[in-house]
Every structure is written in structure tokens, then in C-alpha cells.
Automatic annotation (TrEMBL), chains A, B:
It comes from Candidatus Thermoflexus japonica. This is diphosphomevalonate decarboxylase. Its EC number is 4.1.1.33. Residues 178-305 form the Mvd1 C-terminal domain. It is an enzyme of class 4 (lyase). InterPro entries: GHMP_kinase_C_sf (IPR036554), Mev_decarb (IPR005935), Mev_diP_decarb (IPR029765), MVD-like_N (IPR053859), Mvd1_C (IPR041431), Ribosomal_Su5_D2-typ_SF (IPR020568), Ribsml_uS5_D2-typ_fold_subgr (IPR014721). Residues 9-164 form the Diphosphomevalonate decarboxylase-like N-terminal domain.
Length: 326, 326
């Protein structure tokens, strides 16, 4: 019997951010969050479990990886092995077109795909919610890459209560994300470390306390396809998260000079009548949201902004799912 | 009898910021603030009151000025005339070495000098506190340029209760401000307009509510000449103010790409052991605080940072005072 399965998942861009945990080990988030899967980017993971015990192997884009990235995958697979009552080692082959470590949620797509593939390989018949909960153990925001389209992550109090669900399918709203890459350098401080520092900022507790209200308003804006309302909430929450980062101890500065150039350009374009809104994950790149009709124009303009190295464009994407082994 | 007097005042750099009013007309601030006068920069104002009534004249650095700047001076002088029971028009000659409108508190020094000169010209014998209250009517932060050295502005509930006083004389601590000028463009949105928008930010109320605590900690850090503590409080408050600005409706972005370059450099230098801390007023320029011993090195390094146009250096300065007419 071959214990092998392949799955794909998309990264997601958060409209209301996840920053800070109430439980670091279980990755129970301090606040609920809301995101959209990015259909144009994806990770495909194939997991093969062997009978023999031993260290797991991780092969990323064809290259054997050791160190913390492999350790993190092994720790994650230990959860799956425990659920399935299986002890053999795994070989994980993962391929992605997402630049890693630049705040493009590469780990979200990776662990969502891995959760689906690993569970299938060991014959676990898990629901979407259970897969979301499982993916969360690998990377918090990975739980949001399991359901399709526009997704809300219920913060929850316990492991079983912290999962993501779809609030609208990808075809509900042709909302585009045009991503201005201003740096492909791997970030100096990981998101995991950042989450641990969040509570040291005096701006954190209020962001957490008011996040449910912003999630509700954002959910409503998505339901009504109300770009103006979405823009205001999304920009406020992104700035707030970065203000938390910049006032943490020690402080975290993810912005680059070109980040400001893009933010200024986006504000100018909006004043000129172009429907655009910005958000930023834990990195210097700027995600420019717009209706699909404006995406080509936004991409064209972003490519001309000094400091922008390249532009990626994506509409809403589906959830994590099993695909045939290649 | 000649109704003429001349006074000088320094601008000040706030360590805990003034942003938002509880009363826009009286410029009663939402929160207490704390600052240091900058002795190396100054404004000298000569006020001459004439017997005849009519519009006041404003001459800035030798150039006759009309429009909103003159109107603001006339509205301010109306308060002084009312206090003195005098109705004649004034000629105000003001000279300064402070670039205007780039977040260097040019209006603070201008109205502090004007308050002292105008009161003296009309024979009003006002205490330091009364002069501070008067200056506040011209520009909120001008009240902080009246007392010497390190200064706290008591927010107050009423006009008579909102004034600044010295918490330590300039010679108490050789703390230097090395200012990286990244733009000399006049800011697109005035501080007065910014103050009106402050309350539209969801980050404003908590900043206001917690400002007294930061003022107390900052006061204590100054008393103990504790640079480390000062650095942490000052940076947090500055980021918080700019986060309020960036999340106001409509949003206010004062940062330029070179602002980020300087902030990154300051953080790197501190990691390397140089005692430096940043703060920013309502503008893109970065004030780098350091002990006097480090000021030359900091200035030398700042001059080499890309995007920095020039560097100004200042230690603590005295209060606003009358000087002989030139």
C-alpha cells in the first residue's frame, strides 16, 4: 500500500490581519481575521509516508532542505501521524511559485497543501473545518488557505474552536490583488517571532479588542461588494498592524523606502478616481486591491513606480484540495 | 510713546506629541505633551503698534506677507489688543532661520516670540504662565516655546489652565537633536487641519488616554538623564502619532521614502551601540536624539544617508524672552 497524496493550496491576503497569539504553541490567534485566497499563486505538496521510522525529508522546489524549515514540517507531521496512529517517516516534495519569506504568505499555502496531502496520504477522512484546524498548527494563517474564496478565521478559545470558513466563494466578487514587490530579500525577523512580540506594543490590545468589529464590517463590505467600505477598513487595519510592529519591543520595521513610494502613489491614484486600496502583510511589499476592471491599469502604473521590482496579479482563488499525483 | 518690542524664541521638539484638540478654537489639546527647546534655531519678532486702526502688516524675513499667515497673526494680536485695551494696528517683523512648514515647529517659535514681543509692546506685565497661555492661542505648541529647556504642557480643561512650564533648565542635560531634513517642501496638509482630523482615527482615543502616563515616564527619564528609557517612550509616541495620522479620514501621510531610510539607519546604529533615538513631528524629517558626545558622529552619518538633504544640529535652548530692538 502506497501512503502518498498530493494537494494544492493558494496563499491568502488578509484584509483584517492576524498578528499576535493568545497561545503560541497552538497558534490560537489573539483576534479573528479575514482574507482572500490568491488564485494565481499556488503551492503543490506531495507527501509520501514510508514504513520505516526516522527523520522526515523536505524537498522544496527540487532542493533538499535541512534546518528549521524541515524541523517545522516534521513537527507538523507529528500531529498528523498521531491522529493516524502511524509512525513512519515522510518525504515531502513541495513546489511553489510564491517567493518565500517576503510577506506573501508562502507558509500559509505550504501548510494548507501539506495538511490536505498528509491527511489524505494516511487515510484520514477530515472535514474542511478539521483540515483548517490541522493546517493552523503548521502556520496560523494556513488555516485560511483551506476553505475557498473569501475566508474568515474564527479566533476561538481552544484548539477545536479556532478554524476558518468561507464567507463567499471566489466567484462572488472579482476583486483583484496587484502586488508590488519592492524587495525579495528574506525578512530578518520571522512572523513567528513577530507574533511573540505583538503584546509588547501599547497599540496591540485595542487592535485585538476592536478586530471583531472590523471583521464584521469587512464581511459586510464583501457581501455587498462595497469597495469603498472595504478600502477604509482594510487600510486602517494594515496601518494599525504595522504600528503595533513598529512599537513592539524590540521594534519591527518591515517597511522599505519604496513601500512609502507605493503607498503615496496609491493614495494619489485614488484621489484621481481610480478604485484602489492598499494592504501590507509582514513585509515591505504592497498589495493593491482593486476591481478586476482596474487591475491592468494598476499593474501598468505600479510597474513604473521607482523601487518596484516586479508586479504579481491575482484574483480570488479556491480552497486547498487534493489533486492527482504527478 | 513708542509701542514697540522685540523678542526671541526657539522652536521645540516634542518627545510626547501634541496631536488633536479638545477645543480647536482655544487650541486646548487632547493630551498633555512634553518637549525640548532647540537652542540653535530661533525666531526674532519685532512688534510695533501704531495709533491708527487698520489691517496688521506681517513682514517675514524681509518679505511682506498677505493671506492666511497674516490673518492668523492679526487674529492672534486681537487677543493681545483686547487684553491691553488698545485698538491700533501692528507691524510685525519676524526673522527666522527655521525652514517653514516642514514639521520643524516654525509656528511655535514664531508665536512664542510674537506673544512676548506684543505683550511687552503694549505694556502688559504677564507672567511666564500667562505668556504661555497667550502664545497657545496663536499656535498650540507655541506655549511650549515660552518656558526654558525641557517643558511640559499641562493640557488643562479651560483656557487659563492650559499652559507649559519648565521641568528642567537647558543645562540639566546635554541632549542633542540632530535633524535629518529629507524634504523642504511645504507640507500639503497643515497641522491645524491635521489636529481636526485626529479624532477620526480609531487609534486616537487610546493615545490620548495613555499620554499622561508617557509624559510622566518621559519626565522621569529626563530627571534621571536616562537615555534608554527616553528613547523607548519617545519612539513609541512618535510612531503612534503617525499611525493616528495615517488612519485618519481622510488619511494623512507625512512620511517620504527617505524617512524610512533614516529610520532604518537609526535602528541599525542603535543595534551597533550608538545611543540614538528618533522622533518625527508632523512632517517627513527625522529628529535623531542623542547625547552631545555622539552628535558629531550622528550628524556625519546622517549626511551620508541617501535622501538626506541637510542636517541641522541643536542642543537644549532657553525660553522666549525680550531682547533689545535692533
Amino acid at each position: 500500500m502506497t501512503r502518498r497524496a498530493t494537494a494544492q493550496a493558494h496563499p491568502n491576503i488578509a484584509f483584517i490581519k492576524y498578528w499576535g497569539n493568545r497561545d503560541d504553541r497552538l497558534r490560537l490567534p489573539a483576534n479573528p481575521s479575514l482574507s482572500m485566497n490568491l488564485g494565481a499563486l499556488r503551492t503543490v505538496a506531495t507527501v509520501t509516508f514510508l514504513e520505516e521510522e526516522g527523520p522526515d525529508a523536505l524537498i522544496l522546489n527540487g532542493i533538499r532542505v535541512e534546518g528549521p524549515a524541515r524541523d517545522r514540517v516534521e513537527a507538523f507531521l507529528d500531529h498528523v501521524r498521531e491522529m493516524a496512529g502511524f509512525r513512519g517517516k515522510a518525504v515531502v516534495e513541495s513546489r511553489t511559485d510564491i517567493p518565500a519569506g517576503v510577506g506573501l504568505a508562502s507558509s500559509a499555502a505550504a501548510f494548507a497543501a501539506l495538511a490536505v496531502a498528509a491527511a489524505a496520504a494516511l487515510g484520514l477522512d477530515l472535514s474542511e473545518r478539521e483540515l483548517s484546524i490541522l493546517a493552523r498548527l503548521g502556520s496560523g494563517s494556513a488555516c485560511r488557505s483551506v476553505p475557498p474564496g473569501f475566508v474568515e478565521w474564527v479566533a476561538g478559545d481552544r484548539h477545536e474552536d479556532s478554524y476558518a470558513y468561507s464567507i463567499a466563494p471566489p466567484e462572488h466578487w472579482a476583486l483583484w490583488d496587484v502586488i508590488a514587490i519592492v524587495s525579495e530579500q528574506h525578512k530578518a525577523v520571522s512572523s513567528s517571532e513577530g507574533h511573540r512580540r505583538a503584546a509588547t506594543s501599547p497599540l496591540h490590545a485595542l487592535r485585538v479588542a476592536t478586530a471583531p468589529e472590523r471583521v464584521a464590517r469587512c464581511r459586510e463590505a464583501i457581501r455587498r461588494r462595497d469597495f469603498e467600505s472595504l478600502a477604509e477598513i482594510v487600510e486602517t487595519d494594515a496601518i494599525w498592524m504595522h504600528a503595533v510592529m513598529m512599537t513592539s519591543r524590540p521594534p519591527l520595521f518591515y517597511w522599505e523606502p519604496a513601500t512609502i513610494t507605493v503607498l503615496q502613489a496609491v493614495r494619489r491614484w485614488r484621489d484621481e478616481g481610480l478604485p484602489v486600496a492598499f494592504t501590507l502583510d509582514a513585509g515591505p511589499n504592497v498589495h493593491v486591491l482593486c476591481p478586476r476592471e482596474a487591475a491592468d491599469e494598476v499593474a501598468r502604473r505600479l510597474e513604473q513606480v521607482p523601487g518596484v521590482q516586479r508586479v504579481l496579479t491575482s484574483g480570488p482563488g479556491g480552497g486547498a484540495c487534493r489533486i492527482p499525483d504527478s
